[in-house]
Amino acid sequence: MGITETIKEQLRAVIQWEKPQEFQLFYKFTDKGDEIKNASKLILQPGQGCIFTHEGKIEGIFETEGLYDLKTENTPFFTTMKKVLNAFESEHKVGIWFYRKADINNIRWGTRTPIKYNDPVYAFPVHLRGYGNYSIKIVDVKSFFVNILAGQEDYFSYELQELFLSRITQPISNYLANAKFSYAEIDSHIEEIAKETQLKSLSVFEDLGFSLIDFRIEGTSFDEETNQRINEISNVQADVHASKIAGVDYAQMQQLKAMRDLAKNEGTAGASMGMFAGMSIAQNINPASSNPDLKTKLKELKELFNEGLIDEQEFKEAKAKLLP
Asked: Where is the SHOCT domain (predicted)?
């Protein structure tokens, strides 16, 4: 590079953040030894801010879009001439970090490890995962610049995810443990959980220099062990419901199922067991029960047959016992 080109470089007139990337929070402007001359201009586009440092100290924070004059001790031509023998570098170093003032939307999040708490209704441990998105905006740029950025040339919003997830899991776990939502109530209270999670997350982001604009939960899931427990409970609840329809208690329903299984496994001997089961049903569905009339009893018996709890022969035997 000749002396003419070097002088032109020293007289750079405009400094701006060109082609900011999606989710980029900070970008350091670099230009041949970080020499920013008196004649230089700073342009900030809408939604951008800028931190100006001089010899390692923050000298100014620009928060409004527009055109700014930058004043340093680097007088263009004198600095160039003095530094010809020193690779055209100046000891008066300045730094310019652009940052994003606009909202950053739809940052993805997901629990790295399950959130654990005891189901308040069934008293078994629940392992819950969640995922969704959140939106943030930087509000204390100086705090973040000094305490987190610490001189990095670039910083992206996804780098906040680890900080966020490591700090928010415990407050969410505590909230779910105290909210007393059973596993079956999670989906119906998803908006409430998201709102409370956002409230409990505000201080986490404020400590980092950001405001949390919104927080959304898009879906939840349980681990395999929790799902197995849920399936076992669902099966028992289905049996209890079926026993109420049949007009028998749960113990009698379990006895009936056991006899049915025995009948299937014992061949011809099972036929007599099946007949006995039908007779047992008819005895339990009798005028002394809580069923109001014969029509109701027959209807309940039909439902048992339709649900496969008794076979056709058992249905006919029980029906015959009920009819005069």
From this structure: 297-323
